[in-house]
Design brief:
It holds the Pfam family DctP. With 331 residues, the protein is of the alpha/beta class. It has two domains: 170 residues, D-Maltodextrin-Binding Protein, domain 2, CATH 3.40.190.170; 135 residues, D-Maltodextrin-Binding Protein, domain 2, CATH 3.40.190.170. Helix content is 47%, strand content 18%. Strands 1, 2, 3, 4, 5, 6, 7, 8, 9 and 10 form a ten-stranded mixed β-sheet that branches. Helix 6 runs antiparallel to helix 13.
Length: 331
């Protein structure tokens, strides 16, 4: 499988190189993302590709590779940075390895709701972070959706912070998420996402944390008894291009790509947010017990997590971000 993937990426890199030589004619850009084809993000990717092709009169086409076909998100982003792939939609945490300032977005319990998160990330945070990403070889086109993260487990309902203590929770290898669960007394397990379903069903871990759409579309609820709507960390997808691929486009084409990226991202946001109640109801109907704990006691325990994230991102970066959060808060 690894050899097949390497061969596919090598072929795409050769195709990209030949397209540069023939830049006056139509080009086909490669677009990788990690969601299944049933997910609203894939629907957004299809809309984006269709509209750009229409508006450029076929001068720009896309080859879309969903469901992580071209490798892990770390692998894909590095290929995008190097110009072997053109474009990706990836959660912002994967940019931390290139620019530590992105770690501030993983701070728990800083956003009041979706609108608050969107105001910050589309406005002052985008103006600040996009130039930093550009220096690392990425052009941030727009923010798409991923969602507030919630906690599931097989041991007990979560109604207060103490209910998390002692649970063995799988988290991605992201310091902000690890620190959040550790602040609540959980034991951290770093199982890969592709092995998560099996690990939950076999009892190797008690639970995991993810946005509702991830829990539902990847069927994790099938092997979990309890869902707590903790909404502890907000995650968004970043739609981005490699700077090398971006330079192949004319200014007019760049404008179209940016506009259609935002339109597709707005659509994904609406779809993901609108379906959350429906997904909760479907999981409850399947037998999952749902709790809605008061966030305030959880928020009160997050200072250790915030301090760890500040050390990673830098105190000045954290202060700048938290000021943005405060400035965009509404009564």
């Amino acid at each position: 499988m690894q050899a097949i993937r390497f061969t596919l990426i090598a072929a795409l890199a050769a195709f990209a190189a030949s397209a540069v030589a023939a830049h006056a004619g139509p080009i086909t850009l490669t677009f990788s993302h990690g969601t299944p084809t049933t997910h609203p993000e894939h629907v957004a990717a299809l809309q984006f590709a269709r509209r750009v092709e229409e508006r450029t009169h076929g001068q720009i086409k896309f080859a879309i590779f969903p469901a992580g076909q071209l490798g892990s998100e770390n692998e894909v982003l590095e290929k995008v940075r190097l110009g072997a792939l053109d474009m990706a939609a990836s959660t912002q945490n994967y940019l931390i390895k290139y620019e530590k300032a992105f770690a501030v977005i993983t701070m728990p319990y800083v956003f009041d709701n979706y609108a608050h998160a969107h105001r910050v990330l589309d406005g002052p945070a985008m103006a600040w972070l996009a130039p930093l990403a550009k220096k690392q070889g990425f052009v941030m086109l727009s923010n798409w959706e991923w969602g507030f993260r919630n906690l599931t487990n097989n041991q007990r309902p979560i109604n207060q912070p103490g209910d998390v203590r002692g649970l063995k929770i799988r988290v991605p290898p992201v310091l902000g998420l690890e620190a959040t669960m550790q602040a609540l007394g959980a034991q951290i397990s770093k199982i890969s996402f592709k092995d998560l379903y099996a690990a939950l069903s076999q009892g190797r871990v008690d639970g995991q944390e993810n946005p509702l759409n991830v829990i539902y579309y990847n069927k994790l609820y099938e092997v979990q008894k309890h869902l707590a709507l903790t909404r502890h960390v907000y995650y968004n997808q970043v739609h981005l291009m490699g700077a090398k691929s971006w330079a192949r486009l004319t200014p007019a084409q760049q404008t179209i790509v940016r506009e259609e990226s935002k339109a597709a991202g707005d659509g994904a946001r609406k779809a993901i947010i609108a379906e959350e109640d429906e997904l909760i109801a479907k999981m409850a109907a399947a037998g999952v017990k749902v709790t809605r704990p008061d966030p305030q006691p959880f928020r009160a325990m997050m200072e250790p997590a915030h301090q760890k994230i500040k050390l990673l991102a830098g105190e000045e970066n954290a202060r700048k971000f938290l000021n943005m959060v405060a400035d965009e808060r509404r009564p």
